[in-house]
Write a structure and sequence with these properties.
The chain has 119 residues and is an all-alpha fold. The protein is 59% helix and 0% strand.
Amino acid sequence: MNEERLLRWISEKDPRYHLYAYRFVLEALRYTQFVFKKPRHITGQELLTGIARLGRERFGVMALTVFQEWGILTSRDFGNIVFNLVELGEVKKTAEDRIEDFDAGFDLQAELSRAEIPG
């Protein structure tokens, strides 16, 4: 199954999140690997940092609104999307990766309003 069909299927399977949210997470994964110069595994917190940075670059001050339109209200929602993608084999995880990695004190609204992210 090609990526587009897979993403359509998964967004129908878990309709909490819009198809665009899945596309964005996959793009943010590649973006974050590039920014952190890590061609392989990145942590949940690194991915959230990359998501916030890419969200600000792409959507500016409207990033939080866009994410909310896609069904994303907290950083945990990004974790749910990632773990849905893991279930389908589209994204890999290590034995140490947990859904809780997407909580860990990450305030999505605060991160989206930051002027710059280190990295």
